[in-house]
Amino acid sequence: MTTDCSPRLFERDEDIRAIGTGLLARTLPRAAWTHEAHLGACLWLVSERPDIDVDAEIAGVIGRYNESVGGVNDDRQGYHDSITRAYVAGVRLFLAETTETGLAARVNAMLLSDVGRRDWPLRFYSRDLLFSVAARRGFVEPDLAPLPA
Questions:
Q1: Superkingdom, according to UniProt (predicted)?
Q2: Is the pLDDT of residue 3 over 70?
């Protein structure tokens, strides 16, 4: 893996919590909403926010955040339901298997694992299906392999 493809890792638990709280409050700067931030916020939500039903609320949380920073959620950009739900499944799988205990340690280990890869959902979906309008607008079942339970 080249340096350009290496994930940006987190130094402190507080950095991840700040991303998560910024996402929820819609105060996170748009430039901070990176691939790593998406996954860090997801792991934080799943592991530290039992008051939030991630499965029921994630689409609204991300969609509203996108709009708050001037983004659009439509057929070509913004919130992508199937990719998000694939990563939620991946985060849960990773949490079930990891021995890491600190928040930053868990997020960083996940980012360095297969689950953290930008192309990880393509293990389950063909490119055509994953990048279809239907998959963006709502969850579609994978066509290559089932998502982890």
A1: Bacteria
A2: no
